[in-house]
Write a structure and sequence with these properties.
Blueprint: H1 20-45, E1 49-54, E2 60-65
Antiparallel strand pairs: 1-2
Keywords: DNA-binding, Membrane, Nucleus, Transcription, Transcription regulation, Transmembrane, Transmembrane helix
Subcellular location: Nucleus
Pfam families: SRF-TF
């Protein structure tokens, strides 16, 4: 069997990301993941969902789905 070229998906340690650029990128990626999970939950259960997130820059990101 051939060796893997990459490590694949790695579990990250839950701690604050010190690099501000990395922190902003992680926020945007995880925000889209949260929106997707909320949408799936709404579809499966027929519930109404509202999510309010504030970025590091103080910007508000709102998801309101019915």
């Amino acid at each position: 069997m051939a060796a893997k070229k990459t490590k694949g998906r790695q579990k990250i340690e839950m701690k604050k990301i010190e690099n501000e650029g990395g922190r902003l990128i992680t926020f945007s990626k995880r925000r889209s993941g949260i929106y997707k999970k909320a949408s799936e939950l709404m579809t499966l259960t027929g519930s109404k969902i509202a999510i309010l997130l504030f970025s590091l820059l103080g910007l508000c990101a709102l998801l309101k789905a019915q």
